[in-house]
UniProtKB/TrEMBL annotation, chains A, B, C, D:
Protein name, UniProt field: 5-oxoprolinase subunit A
UniProt cross-references to HAMAP family, sorted A to Z: PxpA
Annotated GO MF terms: 5-oxoprolinase (ATP-hydrolyzing) activity; ATP binding
Family of this protein: Belongs to the LamB/PxpA family.
Pfam families, per the entry: LamB_YcsF (PF03746)
Subunit and interaction comment: Forms a complex composed of PxpA, PxpB and PxpC.
Organism name: Halobacillus trueperi
Length: 257, 257, 257, 257
């Protein structure tokens, strides 16, 4: 039997500023990565997003980012390992405040944007993040790019880890994502995107832009919560996965070390 | 037997900016109010301050403030009750992250600056804060100005509350502090300051600027951690209290509902 | 001949966050109040908004606000007169940077949100703001609520001032706007809103909720740039004003001391 | 005749946080680089620092930095060229607001910290900054590390540029500063530091850690405004330079294209 988690970034509104169609996308995903006030999100948004996730019975994750609201956490910053550890503890703690007051349970942690990308390749940074997650709660699941340093660091640290794949991105032979600067970085055709994911899940293989197959682990698929076709694609991929006999389930319910 | 807690604001440094002589003042106080990144403090400062407080066996409190680093949380802001609730949960949660990772236990919550002063008089705001503290952990002790709406709200909410007094401030007949704009607001003489506190503790009375005595509850005394004479005064008051037969103890060890 | 300026807040997007339909609303208004990075706006947004305003030949104004992005500058804060002066100089200067580099000329200054409302009633604050505007450039036009302390302070300071009215708000007998907390604060009917404005312009009168007429000055009308019907209303009011023989012109072209 | 400018970073306090001994150091330097609210500084600090610089007849410069108060602008961030251009225009404009209101004249621009270092090596970034400076005012002097891309970009843009050297840092054969991570990065001996600078000025040569001499341009020397020995060193270097027959003068008074 094939099981996979479907995750989406959420709670990225800030004050009067709104981003994302959280209410709608929650009907489709099984895990929500909730922004913690650094790259996006504010206390009220965090609380409401936790409440909505609980209503929809969706697994709740902290989504810590770089302290860069103006850049939405997407601009790499040269932070030290200690700063990374500390800002991850801070943000998980803040979100946990709302999870606790709302009677929920924190399921996972997924670093956001540049922090996620940096931690995919930078071993000391990856280890600092993994240690922060572990120190807050060793039962948390750490999300990282499939095959990344972050997944390795989480594993070494003794955490449960979730290997994440992207349905709408092409892969390089070394397992990395094709840079968005390349013309063939994105898969815009929904059918092709879903085919890639289903093959990853069933065969643990992905076809690279170098025209080769490589092995890939998949525990969770990332989909987007804003943009024109976000809801359409969420609807499309959940249907297609189910029709292929793949079960959608929150990561915390099936992941093991 | 007379027991009192001695508290001080701490961890108010930010990045390369340093405020307060935390390391020295920790030798004297029994409770530390640690800034949570809103009016002051940053993740690394928070972690280190928690570590130091644990080393000195000092009770650890969250010190949530208004989101106003430029004004050090001292400028009243017209926030809603929901915003107050949410920003208090956020900040307690963030500090709790470090208390948990460092193996400590959060003892209390004391709002900072303008939030503390506003909550002394504004019942709905006081209730929102008390509810936030209770919802995070009903065992936390809530600090408020002696006789304030905040202490009342904490009591009604079912929290343990600590009535705080100031050794270096004069009191009005209605139990409020004399405004800092008044010439007689401050007690600069150490001996006189300590006499006022000892009388508060032993007789539950304070002499007001209107030349009358009023009743006052005292569970904790606030002292300052920066300024020229901060360490001298900390040394002076702790000696004087002990010589008067008053026991200094962390609030969590003796407070009851 | 009747002349009036039509102004709208603009450039209030921030990083990846978008607010307002600036591009469309610029076709209708004669003056643009551009956010300066405190309550909203960021450098890139400021530059682009200045560029667009110049393309549409719309008068450019600085729109300084309180340092409260999370609250969109709408939460009153207890700032000192010096802080008000300094933050207004800072924000006008920053916007002027872009006006200068883009080859334009700064026409006016309109404080935003809570700062605008506070300055309507608080004389020392109003004077601090007027002095800041004057000190940066005595030729700037200062916008204030018709009949407000801000308009008076600007006048006393020797600035040209623009009395602003709202088409969609009801008025009190003392010339103030009915609080948004009251059920009859808003005029939602477009026809009624425009009728009120046209009478203000032609007769210098407005009918109050106390069922009396009061005198009112009008140099500029504020319309909104976001919300469902913003563009419809902009279209409706500009047509109606022109059909009534009222000329729409940028404030800088017709205002005198 | 030998002339040199002596510059120091200033106005880096923020709210209640104080850094630097500006008042004292202003007696020694000929140019002040004033923080603009991004990496440090706030409107009131900026105004007061401009006032003090004018009192001491010291050349005033804008000191724009990365938007990273927590990291004091020292953490490299991956910003785009457009973002760099815009944040430099914004910050120069903001400081110019105070220079204008205080009746002064802006003399120069020196990027701060990581922005300065990044612009030393990154040509497109250097060009974006030089263009921003030029577009605000083509008469401004642009400060850059001697031999850097920033000085080259300023020159190409048609700006007057000032080549900056450090008295207390050692140099590599390629003209770059020895990384602070290396043990021999700093020159802590005052006499040796001043000897290096005097030779740079008189012979346009510096001895590198590779034991070779290289050519170097010197228009301005950077000294530090905080730390134990800052004032002592300022006193020492100004005396030594004068005794060597070197004239200290604000860059604007002697620099030519």
């Amino acid at each position: 039997m094939h099981i996979v988690d479907l995750n989406c970034d959420m709670g990225e509104s800030f004050g009067r500023y709104t981003i994302g169609r959280d209410e709608e996308i929650l009907k489709y995903v099984t895990s929500a990565n909730i922004a913690c006030g650094y790259h996006a999100g504010d206390p009220t948004t965090m609380k409401k997003t936790v409440q909505r996730a609980l209503e929809h019975n969706v697994g709740i994750g902290a989504h810590p980012g770089l302290p860069d609201l103006a850049g939405f956490g997407r601009r790499p910053m040269d932070i030290s390992e200690e700063e990374a550890y500390d800002m991850v503890v801070y943000q998980i703690g803040a979100l946990k405040g709302f999870v606790d007051t709302e009677g929920g349970r924190l399921q996972h942690v997924k670093p956001h944007g540049a922090l996620f990308n940096m931690a995919a390749k930078d071993q000391p940074l990856a280890r600092a993040i993994a240690k922060a997650v572990y120190d807050v709660d060793p039962e948390l699941v750490l999300f990282g790019l499939a095959g990344s340093e972050l997944v390795k660091a989480g594993h070494e640290q003794g955490l449960k880890t979730a290997s994440e794949v992207f349905s709408d991105r092409t892969y390089q032979q070394d397992g990395s994502l094709t840079s968005r600067r390349e013309p063939n970085a994105l898969i815009t055709d929904h059918e092709q995107a879903v085919e890639q994911v289903i093959r990853m899940i069933k065969e643990n293989k992905v076809h690279t832009v170098q025209d080769t197959d490589i092995d890939i682990d998949v525990h969770t698929i990332c989909i987007h919560g804003d943009g024109e076709s976000a809801i359409d694609f969420a609807n499309y991929i959940t249907k297609a996965l189910k029709e292929s006999g793949i079960t959608l389930q929150s990561i915390g319910e099936f992941i093991t070390k």
